[in-house]
């Protein structure tokens, strides 16, 4: 485990070197996970290994409040989370050349925001069923608020621990601490959805990979219409579960964008 200082926090990071040495462009692929129950481990058995084997250096990290990173009581708005990422890149010496950002779900919103505020740091963005437009902020905060109440009053972590389900108990306790003892819900509620004007300002290429049945697909279609360089890839038969249920198609699309041949996923 590595705890890396970043903007006054310690963020849990993991790095994987590209097999055969780094790619000629020297770029690193940075993975951004989703909210609350998610952390860097989501990418271990899905995308990080194949990307590393294709020759790309990989950076995984737990965002503030998640996994093994510090959990401060405030600072969960999009701008502060992006500032954490920028500080982390600086701390690791990765701010001298642009990186590729791959964001799943809410991590995609952070990747896109980074590309807007610091285009010099971003070589490309890959979105995996990311939240972009519409009422997603209101829907998400409603969902998180209900989850927070349930965790606070049901004592679910203790029940799971009593049943010997220790890993689930740890994840549930961490979710309870994040939702009920930080400003994460209020901070996310204060953010604004992206607009077509935001999309039009993007300077890097974007690959948007969405599930055919995802309720977030309309935002991706708006992105594809407005961004100067955006490819929309819709994977059949899945909704918001692209990362775990359409891993092979997602990985081929990602490797194709990064310059590795499709089919490079280890079978």
TrEMBL record:
<dbReference type="GO" id="GO:0016020">
    <property type="term" value="C:membrane"/>
</dbReference>
<feature type="region of interest" description="Disordered">
    <location>
        <begin position="1"/>
        <end position="23"/>
    </location>
</feature>
<feature type="domain" description="AB hydrolase-1">
    <location>
        <begin position="29"/>
        <end position="251"/>
    </location>
</feature>
<dbReference type="InterPro" id="IPR050266">
    <property type="entry name" value="AB_hydrolase_sf"/>
</dbReference>
<dbReference type="InterPro" id="IPR029058">
    <property type="entry name" value="AB_hydrolase_fold"/>
</dbReference>
<keyword id="KW-0378">Hydrolase</keyword>
<dbReference type="InterPro" id="IPR000073">
    <property type="entry name" value="AB_hydrolase_1"/>
</dbReference>
<dbReference type="GO" id="GO:0016787">
    <property type="term" value="F:hydrolase activity"/>
</dbReference>
<protein>
    <submittedName>
        <fullName>Alpha/beta hydrolase</fullName>
    </submittedName>
</protein>
<dbReference type="Pfam" id="PF12697">
    <property type="entry name" value="Abhydrolase_6"/>
</dbReference>
